[in-house]
Specification:
There is one protein chain. About 45% of the residues lie in helices and about 20% in strands. It has a seven-stranded mixed beta sheet with strand order 1-2-3-4-5-7-6, with helices on both faces. A hairpin with a 2-residue loop joins strand 8 and strand 9. The radius of gyration is 21 Å and the shape is globular.
Length: about 325
Amino acid sequence: MAILWRPATWPDIESTLPILVKQRGDSLVGAEAAEKGWRRLYVDPFSTATVIESSSPSGEHRIVGFGASAIVSSSFADAEILHPRPDINSRVIANIVWRRPVLATRSEIACANAHRGVDVVVLCGVWLHDLLEPAEQQEVKTLLATSFVETHAGYRIRRILCETVDKPSREFVDRSIVYDCIGDFPEAERAIHLMTAVSAGAVPGSLGNVLFNFREPVLCLRDSDQELLIAAVNGATDAELATELGASMSAVKGRWRSVFAQIGNVMPGLVTDSGGDVRGSQKRHLVLAYLRRHPEELRPYDQKSKGSQDSGAAQAYSRSEE
């Protein structure tokens, strides 16, 4: 049996919510409103949801794990850390339902990435431990951690908040070591945990260290450039890009030329070789390969805070890639 992770679709989340008895966040608003909150969370471009899926030799697929997180406002994170309370999910979901500013906006994330970092709340990380063998459970847990790291790569992480709601999840977090328990509520079988660069750094070689290993972007991509490149990195063809961006094919090709020109101004070695310009398809391959290694280029970033980070930094990046 193969076990893999992939981004969750809304039907995945809709089918998973009923089993998230302690993590769906409905205590303040009720189940129906909470589902609407999760739908709004799903369309937020900076929230993540992944499923761990098993496939049998017969081709049958089954979801055996689910993880979700949100980048929240620093004021919400500050309040939760200062006064830890059980059921953080309900406060996140309720604020979404009430349309209060709990989710960080693009501009807030751009500023945080350029300065002190973003705050993340892990909304859930569950696996069907009653139906899985011990070895399968461990594989699912590893994939949950790996998917979290990969979907948050490129952000300047400041703090990660996580609530455990049962014995298996508490044991999993406790064994990870990189989380500090900041609030224990045994009567509710819940605990609030906090990960920072300091706590992650105390465990050399942990995945937590990868999360806090932020690199400054150097390509100075515009929001519209990032939109195009994110879709392309995810495998979209030009025809699909035209549909997704609501543009003509000629406009998409023009966008690519603009992107190549912008990148060439900052990092000419990425789109040229010793003999001059390379073909468009080769440029695209080189650029997308670079972006997969440097996801920070596709995250919101306040370029005004970048200051004097000019071609010298870009040249340093080019040398590091050789």
